[in-house]
Model the fold of this input.
Amino acid sequence: MTEHEPAAAPQPEWNLRALREPTMLLTATYLATSAIGLWASYCFYRPFGIRVLDYMQPADFLVAALHDPMYFLVVLAGAFLSWLGSRIDAFRETRPGRVAAIRDNTWWGLIVFPRWRDKLSDRGFTAEYVFAAMLLGIAAWLISGYTAVQSQRVLAGNGTRIVLTYNNHDQPEAKHPILLGTTTAWVFVYWPDERTSEAVPQGQVARIRYGVPAVPARH
Done:
């Protein structure tokens, strides 16, 4: 390369390539959403003593994230942060002088352009993969907290009360359990009075009726 020959443009990171390839973007979004859905299911059912992953079939893995739109919002937030990080990296690589000036003259320069980011390439790390791992960890932490609040709410007796009728019973159950969720082959309920959980095969459930009045608070 001669002195006047322009430098080669940096190759776009994997997340920028994904934005330019719809199939790759949709696949990555779907896989990320499914992974978060499985993690959320595990965290939500764990306080009830239910190992929900043992009850899931392949079809349940594919739709695990569709039970709550919050999981999809987490993925969208992660995708936006990934895009933003790629744009910041591109600016840092193409305008190092400007980045140095921002670091020296603004209070936020070291936050947006941390010096440790410059050392990743020198040590052989792939920065976008490190950033993706950080985003995944943050998403797992947020989902853990979100599902913990939901679980504690149910354990306190709040949730969707149902009237449950088994196939071998003529009348519905006198007590009204709280519906935790369902999979392809199982229905999970929580009995607040007994403080026990139950996994009921779908074939043993004759009917589930909703719209049960809330149980009055005990004094």
In short: Residues 14-155 form one domain.
